Fold:
Amino acid sequence: MTATSERRGEVRPLGPADADRYCNHLMRLDADARRMRFFEDVSEFHVLFHAGAALSDGRPVLSYLEDGEIRGACELLEIDRVNHLAEAAFSVEAEWRCQGIGGLLMAAMIAEARRLGVRRIEMSCLRSNLPMQALAARFTSDLRQIGETALAVLDNSPEPSAA
Structure:
């Protein structure tokens, strides 16, 4: 896929019936991308288990689908219901990066989080994951370096209504 290709895909939520396709997407991540996504080298069993769990525990998982294949995804995991806090995690296959897919997923994830009442979204990535930090910087200025980790915090509070 080249940078000049026109996107033909769509962003849509995944459900339990999509577990195989989601697993296939995560398995297509190269070793470096898988390490960036999971913060460590993980086994194929871990990926299989994660995909099934993510789609069966009720967390929103948004995908970028093209020609029936998931090429990118974003999970939104509620981590503190009382404080309306969730964590987001992204994955985009190597040959599909730099196509605007991350931005599409980010915008859809922010909208879904707002719909769910999530007021604060945190995204952690390895400090070496510069593309994820660049994506996050398009949506927030709250970027923090903590050891080997970078943390982006998005304030997702409802927009004040015009009086």
Summary: The chain has five helices and seven strands.
